[in-house]
Write a structure and sequence with these properties.
homodimer, alpha/beta, 13 helices, 11 strands, globular
């Protein structure tokens, strides 16, 4: 396993360097073969790095970038006016092959637009897709697309299925990961036109191990390795999950505070509730990958804490070790030759 | 407030008469002015009613229907071959004005297809939409469409917004309930074509109190009275919520069982956890309404228990008291005159 270099948008996200630098330090401590470019304002980053032991500092390289992309900035504006932003320069490092992957907690729209513009999609891939893991109880389930595209055609869903399969096969060492299409269960009208057509494409080819439709209530059951859907649907489903987890945590807290007796029980349950919170902690699932580009692009949640951003860096490390973009490129090139992609 | 008559598909759902008859008894006990037609097999229903006190029995009328619609039957087959099914005959009672509303826990696709075929949509309404309440912590939030339609046009979403507004205004006595469109937050590409166009239609007219976009994580926040979306999206979101509530309940249970200490805490927490379960109980939110038809059609969850089916009957009673189809008809007729509907 050779050395791996990851470029971090060190100014991105709700907290910028305050979160990114400690996460970078944690990552180089965890991975002896990983080197990190911290891209952003030299003086800010130098200050955050000041106390770090030199054995780690050698693998934490500050790469100056004078601008930052605001969280609410329009992607087109970022693309046009922020050519020296921490985000853009970090992506450039991947394009220049100085880093294998970029991780950013910054503006999602700007990251997707800039990454696509700078790195370009792989031949045979029309649109990159955002993939991430869901907090299932058993097994791992990834969902794509989580919001990189809307109004996807069946052909795009087919490409998402192929890309997701390659990623999961490589990361989890599964020969032929299962793929399901997210759909609704109303009998005859099962699915909209796009999903029905995608099901047909997946059934007719042997490009992936397609097992059929999956409904919304099955997202967390861990019955399928990869769930494919349009980005609009995937984003709504993911955000719905996030929202319901928050509301349920609040209900649990409130219920334990209702009476003096339940408050006492709550105090006694402290360790149990803490374990519960830990198990439901979204930080451990942080790090969505934008698949289909000439390079690895990982999107961290904007509000991620150090643990969360470290998880996103770890995702980048794993994908770099497996060289996922190259694997997708190879798979797609076979499918292009077979006429299954155009 | 005059007398209200509700027709129940007494053979529908996973449990049929075993659940429907006790729920009907509970409903006539709760509402002195409500009369119920129990539609289904005479002998089965008579047996289930045998022990009931005569003061209630007078308002529980068996209406024989020889057939039943299977839960997995194709809607087209039910429509064609089950003209004497409990579902169809119950819907017929609404068409014949012998009942104001029908409640069924049966096959969703068959119910929607049959209700639409028998009752027809109101003038100005192209497609009926399924609306239900979400388990928010504060206020009430309804979502439509939950799966009656897929591939909706912006004009349909506009109609859904109007129908939802009329229902909520009547049921909750709100002058001008707020309406949001379910959307994703990726800046520039915010929304798919359908949602962007619907936003334009809603903004340009004063037909409803439109307040803008709502994201998936805001579904349970209770910030808006009505959330409008395509049925594919709404169904995925609703099922995702159901699925996550189930998984989280399981995580809570498992966490309390992990160690001997936490098991003891679990025993002590019994009353608290019971309160928690009650608060999360989907039964209390059971009963989705198929809006836009010449008559009230309530869909109960197929697996609903007695409490859940009673909640669905109560929804039918409230809509009948307010005469919701008539209110929608009046509102739509004004919008047709104003040229806001065609």
């Amino acid at each position: 396993m050779g050395d791996i270099t990851i470029a971090l948008d060190a100014m991105g996200g709700d907290y910028g360097a305050k979160i990114v630098v400690p996460a970078a330090i944690a990552a180089v401590q965890q991975h002896a073969h990983v080197k990190i470019y911290l891209v952003g304002k030299q003086e800010v980053l130098a200050e955050h790095l000041s106390g770090v032991a030199s054995e780690y500092k050698d693998r934490l390289i500050i790469h100056h970038a004078s601008q930052t992309v605001a969280m609410d900035e329009l992607p087109s504006s970022a693309l046009r006016t922020k050519k020296d932003s921490s985000m853009r320069v970090a992506i450039n490092l991947v394009k220049e092959r100085k880093a294998q992957a970029v991780v950013s907690a910054g503006n999602t729209g700007a990251l997707m637009a800039t990454a696509r513009f700078v790195l370009k999609t792989l031949p045979g891939i029309d649109r990159p897709a955002l993939i991430s893991e869901l907090p299932t109880l058993v097994n791992r389930t990834r969902v794509l697309d989580l919001g990189a595209n809307v109004d996807s055609y069946a052909e795009h869903l087919f490409q998402f299925a192929v890309m997701g399969s390659v990623l999961v096969a490589a990361e989890d060492n599964i020969d032929s990961p299962t793929v399901g299409l997210l759909n609704i269960g109303a009998e005859e009208i099962k699915g909209n036109e796009q999903v029905k057509h995608a099901a047909q494409l997946l059934t007719e080819s042997n490009a992936v191990n397609y097992i059929g439709y999956v409904e919304g209530n099955e997202l967390l059951k861990g019955k399928v390795d990869i769930i494919v859907c349009d980005g609009f649907i995937g984003n709504i489903a993911l955000k719905t999950l996030e929202g319901s987890a928050k509301v349920l945590s609040r209900i649990i807290r409130e219920t334990f505070q209702q009476t003096i007796f339940s408050r006492m029980i709550g105090l006694l349950s402290f360790s149990v509730l803490k374990r519960l919170r830990k198990r439901m902690d979204p930080a451990q699932y942080n790090g969505a990958s934008l698949l289909g580009l000439n390079g690895i692009v990982i999107k961290s949640h904007g509000g991620a804490n150090v643990l969360g951003f470290t998880a996103a860096i770890n995702e980048a490390v794993v994908e770099a070790q497996k060289d996922v973009p190259n694997l997708i490129g190879e798979r797609v090139s076979v499918l292009l030759q077979e006429g299954l992609l155009t």
